[in-house]
Amino acid sequence: MFNPFIKYKGFEFFGTLEFASGGDGRGVDTKRTVNQYVGDIVYRFGSEEKFYVGARYNVVDGKLKNADANNISINRFETAAGWFMTKNILAKFVYVSQNYKDFSQFVGGNPNDLYGGKFNGILFEAVITF
Question: pTM value?
């Protein structure tokens, strides 16, 4: 895993490059690979950089099991605007779109809830951090 972070004035970039491989807990699959790629860009502004806007793109792809014929992938796009009301209190508004691709329609003869799955939505959140 590699997590670069770059800050220049109010601009920030945070990324994740993660490459994982291994078997399953039962020892059935000898090797499978799952990768994750994330890019997060934020611009902080205002007095003491208390406000921000940002965007994130995240992709995870790989095989759930070696027996699966195809890789699956999940991608997520987010945009956000936030305000640090105090040092420890953040309020933010987020739009998110997430898609599940290449999942099997059935798993063990049962419908797969993630087949063709996707969601889009908005979120307002206020958090207290420590």
Answer: 0.82
